[in-house]
Amino acid sequence: MHLSTNSYNSYIRILKAYELTDFHAQPGNGPLYEQVKHLIVERVVSGVWTPGDRLPSETALAREINVSQGTVRKAMDDLCHENLLVRHQGRGTFVSIHTAQRELYHFFHLAGADGIKRLPQRSDVVSNTRRRANRAEAERLQLPAAAEVIVIKRNRHLDGQPAIIETIVLPATRFVGFERETDIPNELYQRYEEIFGVTIHKVEESLCAVAATRAEAKALGIEPGAPLLEIDRTAETLEGMPVEWRLSRCDSRTHRYLNENV
Amino acid sequence: MHLSTNSYNSYIRILKAYELTDFHAQPGNGPLYEQVKHLIVERVVSGVWTPGDRLPSETALAREINVSQGTVRKAMDDLCHENLLVRHQGRGTFVSIHTAQRELYHFFHLAGADGIKRLPQRSDVVSNTRRRANRAEAERLQLPAAAEVIVIKRNRHLDGQPAIIETIVLPATRFVGFERETDIPNELYQRYEEIFGVTIHKVEESLCAVAATRAEAKALGIEPGAPLLEIDRTAETLEGMPVEWRLSRCDSRTHRYLNENV
DNA sequence: GAGTGGTCTAGACCACAGA
DNA sequence: CTGTGGTCTAGACCACTCT
């Protein structure tokens, strides 16, 4: 029932929600479902719900924060479209986890001549060190000037051939001890999530063509000066903090970068 | 009101819709809103509503096809997310048109070193001919073996410098007389829409790095063999028919290809 | 069978645009 | 002022999953 205006009612309801949930934010004048989205994201970010967890049912959450089930549904629907949640009819709503499938589908764009994507089967780690960030690294990861970073270099194989040379830069404070890791998996984002509680939510990539250096040519078994595809990627958490900078140089004779836009 | 089951009711309702609208399709057992989406797309494809047109209001369309306003809303919401429709509060819902903005935002991915996208200011048409398709072209555009195509070659400038060499292949049957066109604009998709009634809805791009040929090097003012970014694009209509094949080779020293994924 | 999300309806009020 | 989309509610039934 409406007491006076819809907005007023929303305000009251969301206040109750804060009391119940320790959730702190501006007393939001935006739509109710936006505030519900915010609340859900906050609980995921703060670790109340972690990847793989089942959320309360729509009706339960609606009752808890005193809004209608339809409003919770709209909030959850939006977050599903943003890939933060996944729904399973009859089972419930869950916080997304980085399966290899999901990683392949959303964040990996290299495909063979047949247009079918494939993940590297093999990655040889060349080095894994911890040192002070240079200026470019600090800027990319929004770190203070003298902060430490972990730098991993590896060669990845596609279809049995060395195809990608990759340099990965991580902030040392978030990935404590990763420089001592000996078993570095192909799918890093699952590891980030499981071990360090870092969920990669969005990646931005920019591409250009470069000429292979002598060392790169040797590693990839091609001629020095041959054209390579360079992929410069910044990966962000749910909160929008950049937590990985990855520079990949790919032999693009046999593999291509795919992108689709509607 | 529910007569027996929801599905039965839906079936009856959608039958009425067919009678009213000349809309023919399988008597759909899928969700009602999917059938409404289908109906809207059909009307756009068949030209009942064309880009820029205002659709009937949600309530009007709901009344016409005998479903609730909420169901029409869900259908329209989905189609907005798919970029087929745009909504303006207080004004109505419209079929999308290819503005330069939209084209820039959705289909153009080159940006300067600052990460800001820019459209070419200038495009010099090198040639514009009509001839039989070769095998690769026929395959890409799903044309019969001996079909005719229009082939346009042009050099495009970014930030005042020649930066892109482009070859565009179009099926001659859809773009009648385009080979005699002398004024070829930068934003082709708007022209396709206005003159030929062809709306580009989706593009698929695949990228690789290549070495510049002598001719390309000369056109771009770089060294032969220098690395170029090759963008191979297929553009599709709403119905999913490929109607443009575009091969661009870009000087990527000063410009990069951007991509963002959530 | 109980509980979950998926679909559909009906009706309310709000915010915005345009006559 | 009227009509549009935007938000919110309440309640119904369906389809699916698990026990």
Write the layout of secondary structure elements.
Two copies of one chain form a homodimer.
Chain A: H1 6-21, H2 32-45, H3 58-65, H4 69-81, E1 85-88, E2 92-95, H5 100-107, E3 110-111, E4 122-132, H6 135-140, E5 148-158, E6 161-171, H7 188-196, E7 200-211, H8 214-220, E8 227-237, E9 242-251, E10 256-261
Antiparallel strand pairs in A: 1-2, 3-10, 4-5, 5-6, 6-9, 7-8, 8-9
Chain A binds a DNA duplex (19 and 19 nucleotides) through α1 and α4.
Overview of this structure, please?
The structure is a homodimer of 262-residue chains. In chain A, α3 crosses α4. Chain A has two domains: 6-95, Winged helix-like DNA-binding domain superfamily/Winged helix DNA-binding domain (Arc Repressor Mutant, subunit A), CATH 1.10.10; 100-257, Chorismate lyase-like (Chorismate lyase, 3-Layer(aba) Sandwich). Chain A is globular, with a radius of gyration of 22 Å. In chain A, the strands form three sheets. Chain A has a six-stranded antiparallel β-sheet with strand order 4-5-6-9-8-7. Chain A starts with 5 loop residues before the first helix and ends with a strand. Chain A has 262 residues and is of the alpha+beta class. Chain A contains eight helices and ten strands. Mean pLDDT of chain A is 90; it is low at 1-8 and 15-27. In chain A, a hairpin with a 4-residue loop joins β8 (227-237) and β9. At the A-B interface, β7, β8 and β10 of A face β7, β8 and β10 of B. The structure holds a DNA duplex (19 and 19 nucleotides).
CATH class category name of the largest domain in chain A: Alpha Beta
Largest sheet entry of chain A: 6 strands, antiparallel
Oligomeric state: homodimer
Strand order of the largest sheet of chain A: 4-5-6-9-8-7
* CATH architecture annotation name of the largest domain in chain A: 3-Layer(aba) Sandwich
* Beta-strand residue fraction of chain A: 25-35%
**Poorly predicted ranges of chain A:** 1-8, 15-27
Structurally, how many domains make up the residues of chain A?
2
DSSP strand count of chain A: 10
CATH topology of the largest domain in chain A: Chorismate lyase
Spell out the CATH superfamily of the largest domain in chain A: Chorismate lyase-like
Question: Averaging pLDDT over every residue of chain A, what do you get?
Answer: 90
- Give the largest interface pair and sizes: A-B, 37 and 37 residues
Q: Which word captures the global form of chain A?
A: globular
Radius of gyration of chain A: 22 Å
Order of helices and strands of chain A: HHHHEEHEEHEEHEHEEE
Helix amount of chain A, in percent?
A: 25-40%
Structural class of chain A: alpha+beta
Number of helices of chain A: 8
- Whole-Å distance between the termini of chain A? 41 Å
